[in-house]
Structure formats: structure tokens, C-alpha cells
Amino acid sequence: MSTADCEQQEAGWGILEDLPGDPMIWVLIFSELAAFGLFLGAFVVARLIHPAVFAAGQAALDSRLAGLNTVVLVTSGWAAAHGTAAARLGKKRVSRGWLVGAMALGGLFVAIKLVEYGGEIGSGIGLETSTFFTLYFLLTGFHLLHVCLGIVILAVVCRRAEVVGVETGSAFWHMVDLIWIVMFPLLYLVR
Amino acid sequence: MMPDRLDMTWIVLIGLALATILVPSLVPRPLLANALLLALAAMKGRRIVLDYLDLRAAPALWRGLVTAWIVILVLLAWLGSAAVALI
Q1: What is the CATH number of the domain that holds A71?
Q2: Shortest CA distance to B17 belongs to which of A170, A146, A173, A69?
Q3: N or C: which end of chain B has fewer CB within 10 A?
Q4: DSSP, res A90
Q5: Is the pLDDT of residue A5 over 70?
């Protein structure tokens, strides 16, 4: 492949190139937002069909733990954003410190969510308890998988702490944050 | 050290998150509480899009698409809750 071909290939992302990080992560981000959007839309429609079942299910959830997790994830996003800012200034060591903080808070989010699941399962609630809990476990479980994947991505980009890598990992992390911000009130609080 | 934009966004997000947790106990009317909760979610989402996802300086198309994702979902959720209240 000639140099010209390489340059043409690198310049082949069009307007996606104006976004921070690797353009490929934005293809993934838009795909994930579409998938979660459809899933959350289905949750709203199912609630319309079974309002009493959803009200009873929601009453059994621990919204305080979920609220605490919102604070944890938002703080983790703040650390990741600082990690990106430091990487852009060429401060790799500082960037790594922020990213490790973001990952630790991500780990705390996972731990709190597992405690929450433990309480629910301990009180006899499961995937087949009701339509509400089927959707609740699938939605939050799918999101939790993304949190775990995000921690792995941040760990990978943290090693070299290069600008594009850190921007790419952080963009995925903020998407996970954004989805939780919309999911939390919808599942736990909206009556 | 003065807080920068990222710090200010974090402070705003924490404030909005705490307000979200308090709304159900402070606002007894479900439709109003739901509207407030979802408006708070939209505000948090917007700050994340602009300052954390860093789309403030990105082409309006991308900023608009992600913002539209937030607005459509919170509107759908509010309309759904209003319909449940009317049933």
C-alpha cells in the first residue's frame, strides 16, 4: 500500500474525524445509544401495558443505592475527563493518576450494584419475578457489562496514556455515564 | 486553585444528582415530580455531552444527535408516565 493510499484511508472517516478519540469508538457509541434507546423505549411501553406490576416492582428497588451510584459514576466521569485533559497537555503521569481514579470509582459502582442485586435476590426477586424485573435485570445487567468493559478499556489506554487512546477510552466511559443518567430516574424514580 | 470547567461541571452534576434523589420525597404530585426528575436527567445529560464527552466544539450534527437521544427518551418517559396516570 502506497503512502497516498494510507493517507486516503486515514482520512476516510469524514465528519467523524472532528470527534475526540478514534472515530471507530463513535460508531460504537452511536450504536450503543441506539440499542439502549430502543431498550429504554420498550421499558416505557411495557410500563404502559402493566402499570401496577411496574409500580410494585419499582417499590421493591433500593433507589438510595442507585442514587449513590449516580454520584460515584459522575465523579468517575469527572476523573476520566481530567485524565483526558492531562493527556492532551502531555502529562502522562498525571493522566494515568486520573484514569486509575476513574477505574477505581468504576469498580466501586460495580460493587454497589452487586450489593444491590444481592439484596434483591436475597429477598426472592429474580429475572422471572415479573415483566418489570425481567427488563430491570436485563437493562441494568447490560449496563453493568458496559461499565466492566469501560474499566478494561480505560486500563488498556492508561498504560501508554497517549492522547487519542485516552480520548477514545474516556469517550466510551462518558457514554456509559450518560446512559446511567437517563436510566436511573426511568427505572427507579419515575412513578 | 480555581475550579476549571470540568470541576464546575462535576459540582453541577453532583448538585443535580442530589436534587434528583430528593425530588420524590419533596414533590408529592407524581406528574410534576416526574417532569422535574426527567428535566434534571436532561440537564445532567447535556452537561456530560458538552463537557465530558467534549462535544461543545464538535460539529452541531453530533452534538444534536446525542442531545436528541436524551430529549426523546425523557419526553417519551414523561408522556408514558402521564398516560399511566390517566389510565
Answers
A1: 1.20.120.80
A2: A69
A3: N
A4: T
A5: no
